[in-house]
Amino acid sequence: MNYLVDLFFPPSCLACSNTLHDNEVVICVECRHHLPLTNYHFNEDRPLNRLFFGRVQFVDATALFFFHKNSRVQKLLHHLKYNNQQSLGTILGTWLGLEMKASMRFENIDLIVPVPSHKKRIKKRGYNQVVPFAKAIANVLNIPSDDSILIKIKNTKTQVFQTKEQR
Question: Which CB contacts under 8 angstroms, 24+ apart, belong to 78-87?
Fold first, then answer.
């Protein structure tokens, strides 16, 4: 850490913009406690499986947070996607990886493959925001991650302004 820089430019929470205290990294303790966890990976009812059933072939699914417009989660995702906050991807990926490991529903995963971005989008953003997230999950689950298996060849429009159905 650079304490002199922190003195004049204290680090702030990416979810609420409050100044981070000692031992807080990227997200303050208060925000961590108020982020809306889904706990889908512990839910025997498996709500995401029902949601995706018949749309995509898969074995199991989970999500770390519920998403709501203008929420802390949206702010975090915005920082991850557009503000080159790769450490946030690692923190969130580690968090989800620990949750997945604790649920024991994801013990048979062989490989983590992040969804690719088109090379033009990567050039614009500087990186694919999903890669550090995927690598962190793989690290926790002690399995490999490979971001070279899938390649996005078509540069599609951003989905930000599309409805859930359009996505």
Answer: 79/14, 80/129, 80/133, 81/125, 81/129, 82/125, 84/125, 84/126, 84/127, 85/14, 85/26, 86/127, 86/129, 86/132, 87/25, 87/26, 87/132
